Task: structure prediction
Amino acid sequence: MLSVLIPSYNDEKNLPMALASALKVKSVSEIIVVDDNSSDNTQKLIKDLSSQSSKIKYFKNKKNIGSGMSFIKAFKKSNNSFVVMLNSDDFFIPQAIDELFDYLIKNDLDVAYGRMAIRKESDIYKFNHVGYKTYSYIGNRDEFKDLLIFDMYMPSFGTIIKKKSINSFYNEKYYKNLQKSYGGYFKAHDYDLFINLAKQKKKFGFLNKTVCVWCPKEKSQSGLSYFQSGEASYESAFLFNRYFKNEKFDNLSLNLIYKRIDEKLKHKSTKNFFKDKFSYHYDIFVKNINELKT
Result:
C-alpha cells in the first residue's frame, strides 16, 4: 500500500482539498501530515478530519524546520513500502494515482511518475513540461542527464517512490549535510532526491497520464520570488556541481545545461543585482562546465 506525506505550514485553507484527494486514492492506507509549527487552525482542522478517517496521522513540529526536513520526518513515520509526497496546497487526481501505483508495482520500479496539470484561478490546464515524453516508458532514458538538461520534470507530488530505494540514506543527517554543503536553507530537496536516485541508476518509469494538479502561488516555495532572488539558478548550479563527477557529458548536453541555468539567472531581480550569499555556486558551475568541454 501507499503512504502520502504532507508537509504543511499555515495552510488550513488549502489542506482540506489535498487531504480529500488523497483519501480518494484506493491504494492509500495512511496520510501523514507534518505540521511545521503552524500558527493557524491546522491542528483543529486535522483533529476534525481525522475523526472521519483513521488513515490521517498528524504530527506537529515544536519549531519551524522547513518543508524538506518535514518531508523526511513524515517519511520516517510512514509504515508502507511506497511513498508519495503531496504539497498541502496541491492535489491528486485519485484514479490516476492508483493507475500510477499499479504501473510501478507491475513493472517493479523504484520511481514512477506521471504528468502534472496546473490550476490558474478556477480553471485547470495541461502543463507541457519540455522534459515530458509523449509516451510511457520503462527504464530506457538517461534520467540523470535529462534532469540536468530539462530541470525538474518529475512532479514531486506525482511521483511514487519505493521506500526501500531511499530508506538507507534519506534521513535528517542527509538533509542537514545538503544544507551545509549549500551554505543555507535549500528548497529544491525533491529535485536533489530525484537526481540522486538517477545518479544511482535506479529504475524509473513514466506513465503518460496527468496524475496531479499544481496550484502555484507567488509566495510559494517555487514561486516568482524563488526566481527573482536568484535561488532557482544557484540551487540548480549547486546540484550540477554536487553530482556531475565521474560523468561523461557531450558538448551539446553541457551547452543545454548551461543555457537552462543561465536563463534562470536572467530572472533575477535588478534589486538583487550584486552577487549574494549563494552566487558562488553559479561561478563554480561555469568553471566546471568550461573544464568539461572538449
